[in-house]
Amino acid sequence: MKLFLRSGSLAVALLASVSLAHAFQEAPMLKAEVDAGKLPPVDERLPADPMVVDAVEVGQYGGTWHRAYSGPGDRWGPTKLMEERVLKYVPDAEGNISLVPAYIESYSVNDDSTEFTFTLLDGMKWSDGEPVTTEDVEFWYNDVFLNKALTPTIDPTFSPGGVPMTLEVKDDRTFTIKFAQPYVYFLNILAKDSTGEPSLDRPSFLYPKHYLSQFNDHYANADELAKAAADHGVQRWSDLWGSKGPITSWWQNPELPVITAWKIETPAPANVVTMVRNPYYWAVDQDGNQLPYIDRIEHRLFDAADSFNLMIVQGQIDMQMRYVNTSDFTFYKENADKGGYHVGTSISANVWSFVPNLNTTDEQLNPLFNNADFRHALSVGIDRETINELGFAGLGEPRSVSPVSGSPYFNADWETHWTEYDPDLANELLDKVGLSERDADDYRLLPNGKRLQIVVEAYQDYAAPILEVAADYYKDIGIELLPRIIDRTQWDDNRDNNNFQIQYTPVDRLSVVSADPRNIMGNDSYAQQHYVWYSTEGESGIEPPADDPIRTIWSDWDKASVAGSVEDADAALNDMIGTFVDQGYVIGLVGEEKAPMIVKNDFMNVRNDLIQDDVTRGVGYAQPQQFWIKQGN
Amino acid sequence: MANFLLRRILWAIPTLIVVSFISFIIIQLPPGDYVTAYAAELRNSGEYITAAQENAIRTQLGLNDPILVQYVRWIGNILLHGDFGQSFHWNAPVSDLIWSRLALTLLLSSLSLVFTWIIAIPIGVYSAQRQYSLLDYVFTIFGFLGKGIPDFLLALILMWIGFAWMNIDVGGLISPRFEGAPLSLSKVLNVLNHVWIPIVVLATGGAAGLIRVMRANMLDELGKPYVETAYAQGLSERQVVWGYPVRVALNPFISTVGWALPALFSGDVITAVVLNLPTTGPLMLQALKMQDMYLAGAFILILSVFTVIGTLLSDILLAWSDPRIRYA
Questions:
Q1: Residue B62, domain extent
Q2: Main-chain phi, psi angles of B207, to 5 degrees
Q3: 3-state secondary structure of A216
């Protein structure tokens, strides 16, 4: 206790407050500010009973974490290091995914999952020292969520069955969210998407009313709003809001009060974006040290993957997963000693896949893609082991598109569905489909007499060798695969406009499927136009045939989303995934790759082999607030 | 001369209007627009926006208006208010973005231009004077290599050499520890330590070509009767060579010096991307890829203006340095 080193009455006063229930410690950086009288003491900044985050080991304070970012589009890179939710996914002792409360003291769900009650931590504060109360919750609900100017359409996730959730406030810490029908997956959805727009780091149910009300039309008059918009160079006051709004986007606005472990200090478009610790962060480690351990995070801008790799091997990156590429694994390993880092791994929840377009406008290919036997042939016509060795340095595993190991929905039979390499079976299936005619080069002929050619497009340069290998295998079964590496924007545009045959892409969100099942339902995937038809209730898109299995997928989800108990919901969800896997809609190749991450040798508490998925919030799952850097003292 | 100048300047105006309009259209030609790219970016990070929301953003950004309306609005703001608009992608005024990177870009480009000339002219002259000597062959080999190796590849090789054998940190223009630090001698030294790679890369590529041009022009001139006359007058070799043939041989340089102006502004885009330089080049490339219209449009417009002005300057310089052109 360095407290005794100080003299005078201040030390006595401090001692008195520390000797109360517990003694919390704080970072030297903040202590200096307390001593200078700029900050209240740590016990006044923390909640009465702070949330305890179990650190892998108790760490030291201080240091700057250097990482890299790729430009303004990379808002989520910095965000995922620190976003907060009422409940967050964290790894339990066995490495399985578990859901734990964050800035709430407690929560409860009624029997039929229609009411969810939360109690905020007692004495929790915004990063500017103002208390966090249910007033902030009411502000979020009445003035943002229900405010047509800011939320023109309420996301279906928050209005299951078309009825928006309602809020009931009990006192200044406790509130209840109610739904018109059972909603068992609400907590999972909160952990992933939280309460959605318009904020970037999306603290569930909370907006800092004391700050944001000056930019809200329920509080400010038209002139004030017009002035605020003009000051920030936007056209309308509502443009101040949203994930890119200069007011509500944490990474553009240093004045925005936050509840995250760090807050922005130098915003983009700086060459180096910096974040600094939040003195009011509401969590401590097992020994009562206020988190985070690390003082600052610096993100350095890079343009090309090569320059980022160079930063790594020169030891300029302390810890990073994002943009660290499996295909460069050897390069990272070779230079680890020189750069003073080691290569850790996380388990990617992606499966690199061929996504055939069941809605393709090509009249010859459309019936083929919609034929399960044809998809079966495509799937068993490729030797995934070779793809894994050549394209992924052997770090992945051959598998189908299905929930990954560690997911509550994992199923070993699904994982190997149609993944064996069997060219004889593939040929047999293709003959059965009616493609037995061949041309002089031994390629199969389509019913119209033309050669069976399929264009596969990818946007990653490093996909080229993988596609070439696949093309070789398909040549053996009489299919000409034409690889195309195209620009990312074009690739996305093709998918949106139903203008592709097969796309090569990593399929994600395969850990906690309940939090985001849209991929499996066809969205942004094998049947985008069918999904549009489903989600617009028939207004636009393409209607699937009456007996199409995709309808079973949707009805299973409809069942799951209104089930009264988790068991019923999971049963329906498993049926849904089962149909998707049995139909082999998407042809998984290699997944669960051990994705490399760069960790400097003095950068501590980074667990190896954690699941990495968007649902579990990427690197956020590793709890960056308990990372620490060895201090040379 | 005055008449010639006036005509040139008057012609520049319609040229610029046409160029700005065409460039605006070209930016819009690829399928999709900024909102498509933005929505895709959101999707990759697990955010979804509906088609209705996408359309709302389009309306908000004015992307749904007819292209002519968009063009007039854009060019009007530039001419009347000096306002180049907002970059959608960076969410910041275009002029701020460009200005913040312009100083470094100009520094780098002018250094490499000067460097190019310092290398190329003497070597070109020497190679012509001592044609087929050992050194001429050495320079010729170097010249063809320099011309043949793409800049970005050379940049990668130099970076690799710097990293693997010389143990200096490469990439960027400054080590991370000096980023944001106050100006100091060690900071300046650190920048110099980084800046040599881009300069060498940019200068060798340019110099190689110029050496060949200079050599060829000199060989043409050295055989002419007036050179012999000058020698007969008893002038030294240096006086003869640098006094007359070099001046004539410089003509092609002078007529292309104007194009150095836009090059100064944009720098070598690919090299800058590879070297991770905080210059305007990478910004432009990204703007084009993302269809960040106003940022890309501003770049293309500025480049066109510079090209037109540069050509004008070249014409004036050439007229000034070579009487044959003036009185032609």
A1: 1-94
A2: -65, -40
A3: coil
Interface test with B, best of A489, A503, A509 (most B CBs within 10 A): A489
The pairing of strands A272-277 and A262-266 is antiparallel
In A, residues 441-500, which contact B (CB 8 Å cutoff)? 487-490, 492-493, 496-497
The string of pLDDT tens digits covering residues B215-271 is 999 999 898 999 999 999 998 988 888 888 888 888 877 877 777 777 777 767 888
State the pLDDT at residue A20.
41
- Chain A CB contacts of B180 under 8 Å are 266, 272, 274
- Are the Cβ atoms of B60 and A235 closer than 8 angstroms? yes
Q: Does A218 touch chain B (CB under 8 A)?
A: no
Cα B196 vs. chain centroid, distance in angstroms?
Answer: 17
Whether residues B141 and B200 fall in one domain = yes
CA-nearest residue to B52 within chain A is A153
Last residue of a domain, one of B94, B118, B144: B94
Q: How far is A318 from chain B (nearest CA, A)?
A: 12
- Cα maximum dimension of chain A: 97
Q: How far is A521 from chain B (nearest CA, A)?
A: 15
B60–A493 C-beta distance less than 8 A: no
Q: In chain B, how many domains are there?
A: 2
Cα separation, A610 vs B311, in Å, equals: 60
Q: Is the pLDDT of residue A197 over 80?
A: no
Give the DSSP letter string of B201-238: HHHHHHHHHHHHHHHHHHHHHHTSHHHHHHHHTT--HH
Same domain (yes/no): B72, B131 = no
**What CATH code is carried by the domain that includes residue B149?**
1.10.3720.10
B244 plus B108 within the same structural domain = yes
- Span B24-56, pLDDT tens digits: 888 777 777 888 878 877 776 666 677 777 887
How many pairs of residues across A and B have Cβ atoms under 8 Å apart?
119
Q: Could you tell me which residues are beta bridge partners of residue A67?
A: A299
| A66 at B interface, C-beta within 8 A | yes
Closest by CA to B37, choosing from A299, A488, A148, A133, is A488
Contact B45 A614 (CB under 8 A): yes
Beta carbons of B176 and A300 less than 8 Å apart: yes
Which domains, from first to last, does chain A contain? 22-68+260-344+600-632 (3.40.190), 84-243 (3.90.76.10), 351-591 (3.10.105.10)
- Percentages helix, strand, coil for chain B (3-state, rounded to 5) are 80, 0, 20
The answer to whether the CB atoms of B36 and A489 lie below 8 A apart is: yes
Give yes or no for a cis peptide into A403 (omega within 30° of 0).
no
B233 and B291 share a domain?
A: yes
Q: Identify all chain B residues contacting A307, using CB atoms and an 8 Å cutoff.
A: 171-172, 273-276
Using DSSP's 3-state secondary structure scheme, residue A116 falls into strand
- Within this chain, do residues B208 and B309 fall inside the same structural domain, yes or no? yes
- Rounded CA separation A376/A422 (Å): 10
Distance CA A592, CA A611 (A): 9
What is the predicted pLDDT for the residue at A12? 35
Pairing mode, strands A97-101 and A104-109: unpaired
Q: Kindly report, residue by residue over B150-191, the tens digit of the pLDDT.
A: 888 888 888 888 888 877 777 777 777 777 677 788 888 888
User: A302: distance to nearest CA of chain B, Å?
Assistant: 6
CA neighbor of A158 nearest in space, from A122, A124, A198, A190: A190
- pLDDT of residue B93 exceeding 80, the answer is yes
- What interhelical angle do B2-28 and B67-81 show, nearest 10? 130
pTM of the predicted protein model: 0.82
Interface probe for A, chosen from B59, B91, B271 (most Cβ of A below 10 Å), is B91
Instruction: Check whether residue B132 and residue B199 sit in a common domain.
Output: yes
pLDDT at residue A624 in the model: 96
